[in-house]
Amino acid sequence: MLTSFRAATSAPRRVAMAGGLVLALSGGYALAGDGVSSDQILNALTAKPRVTRSMAAPHPDQAAAAAESKFIASLRNRPTRSLSLTERDEIATIARDKPNIELEITFDYNSADISAKALPQVEALGKALSDPALRGATFVVAGYTDASGGEAYNQDLSERRADSIKHALVEKYGVTAADLVTVGYGKTKLKNPDNPTDPANRRVQVVTMTDKAPTQ
Q1: Residue 33: its pLDDT value, please?
Q2: Disulfide-capable partner of 128 in 12, 38, 180, 204 (CB 3.0 to 4.6 Å)?
Q3: Measuring CA to CA, how many Å separate 71 from each of 4, 60, 90, 181, 216?
Q4: DSSP code of residue 216
Q5: pTM (predicted TM-score)
C-alpha cells in the first residue's frame, strides 16, 4: 500500500477539499487527464529550461548561479513544515524557468490519500523519476489547494499531499528521498485566481530544480 497522510475531518462544518489535483510542473506540457506516459514525463523533465531572463548579458551571473545551487542544496532532507515563507517563495521563483509537465493526480475526498484511479499516473511518474537520465537530480514536489476553507487547514493539506506523493515515489519506485524537496503553498498561489474554487487550483507541482546532485 502507498504510504500517505490523512487530513483531519473532525470539524463537521469545515469546507472539504475535493479530491482532484493536478500534478503541474511550471507551465510546460498541458497534459492533465490524458494518461501521460513515463516517456512523456521523462522527455518533459529533461527538456531544456525556458529562458525568460534578459538576453543582454551573454554570460550568466556566476555568483547568482552559485547562490541558487547552494540554496537548493540546503533544501535536501528538510521536513516540509520546516520551510519558512521566504524559502517557499524563493522555491517558487526559481521553479518558474525549470523543466515541467502537468499530470492529473487525484486524492481521496478531503484527504491526502492518493486515490486508486490515480495510481497508474503515479506509477508513470515514479518510472520517469527513477530513470537513469534523471538520477541524482533534485526535484521540488509542491502541494496546492483551492480557496475553499481556512488558510491554516489548506496549508496543512497541501503539505500532506506533497508528502504523500514523495512517500509513494520513495517507497514504491526507489526515488532517493533527499532528491525530493516537499513544500506546501495552500491556497496562496491559485492557478486560476478568477475562479478560486476551480479544481485546477487543487494540484501538486513537481519541478526539476537541478540536473545532478549537489556536491557535498
Answers
A1: 46
A2: 38
A3: 28, 17, 9, 12, 13
A4: -
A5: 0.75
CB distance 140 to 91 below 8 Å: yes
Residue 4 sits at φ, ψ, to 5 deg, of -155, 170
Q: Encode pLDDT of 175-209 as tens digits.
A: 999 999 999 999 998 888 999 988 878 777 788 99
> What is 76-116 written as a DSSP string?
TT--GGG--HHHHHHHHHHHTTS--EEEEEEB-TTSSSBPG
CB-based contact 14:149 (threshold 8 Å): yes
Check: CB of residue 191 under 8 Å from CB of residue 24.
Answer: yes
For the stretch 73-92, pLDDT in tens is 999 999 999 999 999 999 99
- CA distances from residue 99 to 37, 102, 132, 134, 197 in whole angstroms, order as listed: 16, 11, 17, 12, 27
Phi, psi of 9 (to 5 degrees): -130, 20
Counting other chains too, the contacts that 80-87 makes at CB distance below 8 Å and 24 or more residues apart are: 80/159, 80/162, 80/163, 80/182, 80/183, 80/184, 81/159, 83/183
In the beta sheet, which residues pair with residue 140?
181, 207
Domains in the chain, start-ordered, CATH in brackets?
20-48+64-210 (3.30.1330.60)
Residue 143 phi/psi, 5-degree rounding, is -100, 145
Grid coordinates given for 169: 515515489
CA proximity to 179, closest of 187, 169, 190? 169
